[in-house]
Amino acid sequence: MSDINPEACDGLRSSISQGDKSASSRSSSATLAANKEPWSVSAGEHFFLHQALLLLGGDVRADENLEVSKLPFPIPANPTSPVPFFHLLERLKTTKREGWRRYGIVGESISDHMYRMAIITMLAPEPLASTLNIPHCTKMALVHDMAESLVGDITPVDNVPTVEKHRREAETMDFMTGTLLGKLSQGFDQGQGLREIFREYEDSKTKESVFVHDIDKMELVLQMMEYERQNQAKLDLSEFLEVVQKIQLEEVKEWCAEIINERDEYWSSKRSQASILEAREMLPESLD
Q1: pLDDT value at position 283?
Q2: For residues 21-49, b (16+ Cβ closer than 10 Å) or e, as one string?
Q3: Are 133 and 191 in contact (CB under 8 A)?
Q4: Disulfide engineering: 147 pairs with which of 32, 63, 139, 169, CB 3.0-4.6 Å?
């Protein structure tokens, strides 16, 4: 960590001080209202300087919009081994998907979500599969949320502007694929390859990227129903069904329709069971 810039650390301390004024609140909109630009450094720079402050003994509290927490290991500037990058990927296993937390569910991680997406891409039905580069789709499913290892899972209810969300994620991908992989033998080309896959997904112009976006939404619907079932229909997560309207490919629409039909049957059976129990409770004890 010999490349630490003390002036940059001082700047980050100032940014942290500003961010801490609103850190007691989970409301991202409040933070943005008080601070149009919550951080004066990029996501990648913030991450590196965050490590520098830890080594300097700083007490770092992450701005809640950026979702950066303390890491148990230092990452050197411009490493010559991919091992620091491998360590950083561990955060995808431990960082939870945020949308469910509003319902008290602390469940799937970001990598859980991407892993099932990757498997689903391998099972694309014909004739759709013959029009797609399936291995490329699988790679895209595994890369598309990689930046969330640092910026966290920013959801629509966080009120972070889309442009700002994309900026944070893009700069974080630059850090991960450039700073962490750029100095390796062939690492620059490999890192650029990951960066290009991420950009293709974000642009959503190729058929492969449209397919992966659709699978991203379908996987959400799958998880929604599974959480409802795990909670014995005590949670109604139907608000997440709005993503179905954004699915473009007919084959994925058909998969979603099957999932929704399965969900309807499940809820119908639960309502019937509840009605029977309610009727029994109303019976006189002599007839029960």
Answers
A1: 54
A2: ebeeeeebeebbeebeebbebbbbbbbbb
A3: no
A4: 169
